[in-house]
Amino acid sequence: MSHIYITARHMEGGQTLKHIARVKWSRPSTGESGETSRSQMVSWIDGGGKARVRDRDGSEVLVHVVHVNPPYLRTNANNESTDNLLSLPQY
After folding, report:
1. Rounded distance between C-alpha atoms, residue 64 and residue 76, angstroms
2. What CA–CA distance (Å, rounded) separates 54 from 61?
3. Helices in the chain by DSSP H: which ranges?
4. Is residue 60 within 8 Å of residue 53, measured between CB atoms?
5. Which of 6, 27, 40, 59 would staple 32 via disulfide (CB 3.0–4.6 Å)?
6. Contact at 8 Å (CB) between 60 and 75?
7. Residues sharing a CB contact under 8 Å with residue 78, sequence separation 6 or more, in sequence order
8. What is d(CA 22, CA 8) in angstroms, rounded to the nearest whole number?
9. Between the CA atoms of 67, 68, 70 and 75, what dihedral angle is there, to the nearest 10 degrees?
């Protein structure tokens, strides 16, 4: 299974990582793209899927699931929690 890139975010009820409700994504290896809910993306990553975000300098950062209630998405760069998802364009 090839990885995907999360390319944009839709926020509901606030502006923190916990408020990302939907994401747009693309899979360069196949040309596929789509939109999915946060819970669907959490399930996909928990099932072994790999999602990444491109940093402003072009490097790639892996997306992880924070397992709280409800779970949400976060990136970690160099073993530090980062806000790369919040840097993505909103829609």
Report:
1. 7
2. 6
3. 38-46
4. yes
5. 27
6. no
7. none
8. 9
9. -50
Which two tokens mark 69? 């209630």
pTM: 0.90
- Please give the torsion angle defined by the CA atoms of residues 56, 61, 67 and 71, in that order, rounded to the nearest 10 degrees: 40
Q: How far is CA 67 from the centre of its chain?
A: 14
Whether residue 71 is preceded by a cis peptide bond, meaning omega within 30 degrees of 0, is no
Instruction: State pLDDT tens for residues 25-60.
Output: 999 999 999 999 999 999 999 999 999 998 777 888
Find the length of the chain: 91
